[in-house]
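Entry 14. Ran structure prediction on the chain below.
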Amino acid sequence: PLPIKSEPTRPAPRSRFRNAAIGLPARLPSPTKETAPNPPTPTTCSPICCLAAAAPHPPVPPPAPPPLPPASAYVHLPFCRKRCHYCDFPIVALGSSSPRGEDPRITDYVRLLLREVAATRPVSDDGGAPLETVFFGGGTPSLVPPRLVAAVLDALRARLRELVGAGVNRVSLGVQAFQEDLLRACGRAHGLEEVHEAVGIVTACEGLQNWSMDLISSLPNQTEEMWEESLRCTVDARPTHVSVYDLQIEQGTKFGQLYTPGVHPLPSDTESANFYKIASKRLSEAGYHHYEISSYCKPGYECKHNVTYWQNRSFYAFGLGSASYINGVRFSRPRRMKEYAEWVQNLEDGTWSHESGNSDTKEMAMDVVMLSLRTAWGLDLRSFSKSFGKSLSLSLCNTFKPFVESGLVVAMDVQQQALSPSDFELDLQSEFDFGSRAAFIRLSDPDGFLLSNELISLAFGIISP
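Output, C-alpha cells:
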C-alpha cells in the first residue's frame, strides 16, 4: 500500500525540492519563498543581505566544458490508488478496486514508455559507460507488475547500454507520518497499520539493507510532539536513509484550495523552521549524516541516483512529466497522457531529439551553484572557476563573506576542514592568490540551509544581474 521507489544500484550519495523524484524541471526557477526547493525561512532577514547584494558583477563567464554522457536514468511510473491532498505530480489515480489481471491503463502506459525508450538515441555513439543507476519514481511504482518493470529494464539495456549490477537493491517507503489523523488529513491511501506492515516486509527481505523512509513536516495541525514521535519511530525502524520534506502548498491541489502557507492550521514559518532544526538534531544524534538539505543517511548509504542531480551530471528520463538533462539542456515531457503520447509519436517521427535546444552558460552556472549549495559538500570553487571563470568565483565568495562571518556559510580548505572568517578574508584579498586557502563553500546545518532561498538568490543576482 505504500509508495515504493526502487533503484538498481549499489549503496553509495529530495524538502521542497520534490522534483528530484521526476528529474529536475526544464528550467530551474530562481529561489523565491513560493517556488524555492528549500525548507521554510525565518520571518526575519539579516540586513547583511542588502550589503552583500551590492557586490560588483564579474564579466560574462567563459563557456563551460561539455558535460559527460549520462550514466543514470529516471523512469516515471505514475500510478497511485488515489491522489494525496498535497500532490501535484503527474499521476494516474487507479482507484481502490483493480480489474482482474493487469490493469490495462498500466500496460498501455508501459507500452508507450517502451516506445519512448526505443526511439531515444544514445547520447554517445559508442554507448559510453554503462548505466550506473535506474530510479523508478511515481506515483507508486510498486503498483506496476514486476514483469513490466523488467520489460523497462530490458528496453534500457537494449537501447542504451548494459546496466551495472542490475537488480533492485534499494527501496523507499513513503510513510510521511506516524499518526493516523495526519495520514487521513493528507488523503493518504494507507494508515498506520499498513506503515508498520510495510516496514516489517522491507526489513525482513533477505539481502536488502539499503532502504529509505520519507517523512513530511509542517502538515496541517501537526505539533512538535507529533513530529518528535515520527522521528523516534523512524529511527527505531532503522532505515539506512531518511528523506525529510517540508510541506509545500501547490496550486491546484486540495491543500492549495484549503490552506494558506503560514496560516493555521498550518504552522508558521518559525514553527516550520523549528521542525527542520529538530529533524536535523534528532537524526544526527541517531547517526545519520545530513548530506543534502532534505536527505539523511547512514555512512555509505547516500542515494547514488539523486547525487547525479546534486552534482549536476547528465541523466536520461523517461515517462509522463519526467525531466531529462542532456548536453547541458533540461527538458520536461508533457504532464498529460494525451500530450505525452503525441510527444512520443513526434520522437519516433524524428521531429524532436535530445539535440533540440541550446545550453546557456549563465543558466548552467546557476544550476551548479543552487544544486551544490543544497549539499554538505558544497560548491567546489576550483572546479567552478575552471568552468565559469575565477572572477565569478571571487565575486560569489565576496558576496558570501558576511555570511561566513555570521556562520551561515562555511568556507573549507581542500580537506573540507572549516576555515576561520579571517583566513577566508585573506584568500579574497588578492585575485591572483584567490583559492590558495578556500576550496569549498557550503551552507551551515541547519541555519544556513534554512536561509538557502535568500543565499542562493544572492548568488543568482551575481551570475545573471
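The first helix runs from residue 48 to 52. Will compare against last week's run tomorrow.
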